[in-house]
Amino acid sequence: MTITIYDVAKEAKVSMATVSRVVNNNPNVKEDTRLRVQEVIKKLRYTPNAVARGLASKKTTTIGIVLPDIADLSSAEIVSGIESVANMYKYNIILANSCDDQEIEKNIFASFVSKQVDGIIYLGHSLSDSSKNYLQDIQIPVVLAGNLGTDSEFYSVNIDYEKATYDITKEFLSKGTKNISLIIDKYESQKTQRLIKGYKDALASAKVEFKPQNIIDGYRTYKESNKLYKAVSNIEAEVVITMFDEVALATMQQALDLGMSIPGDLQILSLENTKLINMTRPKISSVFQPIFDIGAVSMRVLTKIIDIEKAKRKGEEIDEEELAELKAQEKEMNLPYRIVHRQTTK
């Protein structure tokens, strides 16, 4: 495992700036603190890099992008949007696949720091607390694309997941459908919590009883969903709303294989809307979200943050128009969405 300046700071119970001062033999460090940091450096066998030596002020025009799964269609579309704006502003991008693993993710962030990236765009499903603390400590601009943080620690670009789920659930309920199943990935992510709240609020507004068994969790990929229809049929669902297109496809194929009629016996709608939904027969209904635009807007927001932060550090004049634009934006930016009925809903 790569030992980073963050690991040293955490072990020594000091800031990363203090570790950097010790590495650079800066006299403005108390002797007992210096000795403690040096002892930790020796214990962890830490080798200071360019960042720890205070060279990170150099502009690299490089952006680090963290992907949860390099094969994920939604991530690929977001990256296309990021790249379009990055090219416009002469930024290079580095892609890193975390495999949705927190330890790999931590090493990726450390690698980005050592490469002196100017900013990071995070596409992972959920930032761990340790990753949040690390990103805040290293003071590199971060934007979340297609996912949410907590308490607005970072700028994020999404659609309003809560309202989208509320709207589609309410629409099905208004047509007389009562037994609606919501299929999600993990309960603990902020995005999932928003989906669940929208779903529950729609049921409550229609005075329909919430049944906990109608929320089925733990499904994100086609492979994981190979036995999902059994769970759906056990609760006698009339409608299935899935968080991901691959899960919608798997559910549909299993239902069709069993002789079910789509949408006659079961209606299916996805909240993701990648290119996959138009490649299926029947075509899957969805909440259309502008995935490419989520990437493009994320990159543009990041360039504004980078420019302003660098001007502040160098004591240069800040672009007032850019600063005003950034201040006018909510930290959580929601792009427009719409419900698109294709062939899997009535």
From TrEMBL:
This is Catabolite control protein A. InterPro entries: HTH_LacI (IPR000843), Lambda_DNA-bd_dom_sf (IPR010982), Peripla_BP/Lac1_sug-bd_dom (IPR001761), Peripla_BP_I (IPR028082). It comes from the Bacteria. SUPFAM superfamilies: lambda repressor-like DNA-binding domains, Periplasmic binding protein-like I. GO terms for molecular function: DNA-binding transcription factor activity; transcription cis-regulatory region binding. Pfam families: LacI, Peripla_BP_1. Residues 3-57 form the HTH lacI-type domain. Keywords: DNA-binding, Transcription, Transcription regulation.
